[in-house]
Design a protein that fits this description.
Strand content: under 5%
Number of strands: 0
Oligomer: single chain
Distance between the termini: 10 Å
Mean pLDDT: 80
CATH architecture of the largest domain: Orthogonal Bundle
CATH superfamily of the largest domain: MetI-like
């Protein structure tokens, strides 16, 4: 397994290098002077010249790339136009909110999607199976921003059951900052009352974000279980007298969720990209809303920093998913 993890880490290096090249090119294909873009709309000629020297835009292209890689390696990505603070500090302050929203959404999609897909496959061609197929197609087709607005209108504005927007009640101190994740921090400090308040605020955005992922995981699980049920070892277990419930949950499901597990890694990147719209609608103080403000303000340094950070997180999550994949199916690691 250690060799497999090392192999996946090595394979990630070309992808991260490609991301560096892509962001380097993105900055230089803007229609105006990249120095002026980085300095901001109201920058003076002297400030633009200073940015040009600081970022090496007056150097040959290959040397500019070397300087750029050095800046990324040292975490020197410049200051944000909006906050006038280092963009990495802004992202570090907002990243826990996005990670908490994404992981809660992914956890909900996984915990609900896998059992639903498995039951639909076991009850193949039943009314439940047909309902799951229709609802999963609808879940993939519904736009997240539209669904978010509908939830707000029903549960916040009409029924007044859940808060309309934000991450935590105004005027109430959040849990003591240990990880930046309100759920984790409230549990570590034994503040279960704050855990409940955080759950109220995350419920609608997390459910909105998880809808497409839940549908995708359910469909992949259903297809995997249907395929596994036709395997010879399942027929042998049935002939040997094993209870069907044990066959399904102990033997069939483990051999069926490999495809769904791989899909979870792909879904993580999709959830982060979808979080841009969801965070903007629910006024969630995460990287997504920060990205929207950066784009509207032409804050290129912030946009590039977000691209790099999200790309790095996505690569690490995919390594974790591959490790889980190899644990579920040891043949994957043995192929190396």
């Amino acid at each position: 397994m250690a060799r497999f993890v090392l192999h996946r880490l090595v394979l990630t290096i070309p992808a991260l290098f490609g991301l560096l090249v892509l962001t380097f090119i993105m900055l230089r294909v803007v229609p105006n002077d990249p120095s002026a873009a980085l300095a901001g709309e109201n920058a003076t000629p002297e400030q633009i010249a200073e940015v040009r020297r600081a970022y090496g835009f007056d150097q040959p292209l290959w040397k500019q790339f070397v300087i750029y890689v050095g800046q990324v390696g040292t975490g020197n990505l410049g200051n944000s136009i909006i906050s006038n603070r280092p963009v990495l500090r802004d992202i570090a302050d907002r990243l826990p909110a996005t990670m908490e929203l994404t992981f809660v959404s992914l956890l909900f999609a996984t915990v609900v999607g896998i059992p639903i897909g498995a039951i639909a496959a076991v009850w193949y061609q039943s009314l439940f199976d047909h309902a799951v197929r229709v609802l999963t197609v609808a879940g993939l087709a519904i736009a997240s921003f539209w669904f978010a607005i509908i939830l707000q209108m029903i549960f916040a504005m009409e029924l007044d059951w859940l808060p309309l927007r934000g991450r935590f009640p105004e005027g109430l101190a959040p849990p003591y900052h240990l990880t930046g994740l309100y759920f984790v921090d409230s549990l570590l400090t034994l503040r279960f009352d704050l855990f409940g308040r955080a759950a109220e605020y995350i419920l609608m955005p997390a459910f909105t974000l998880s809808l497409a992922g839940l549908a995708s995981i359910a469909r992949f699980t259903r297809a995997g279980v249907l395929e596994t049920l036709q395997k010879e070892f399942v027929h042998y277990a049935e002939a040997a007298g094993y209870r069907r419930l044990r066959i399904i949950w102990v033997y069939v499901l483990r051999n069926s969720v490999v495809g769904a597990t791989t899909q979870i890694g792909l879904l993580f990147g999709g959830l982060i990209s979808s979080a841009v719209a969801v965070e903007a609608i629910f006024d969630w103080p995460g990287v997504g809303s920060y990205a929207v403000n950066a784009i509207l303000s032409s804050d290129y340094k912030a946009v590039l920093a977000i691209t790099l950070v999200v790309g790095l997180i996505y690569a690490l999550v995919n390594i974790m998913v591959d490790v889980v994949h190899a644990w579920l199916d040891p043949r994957v690691a043995e192929k190396l």
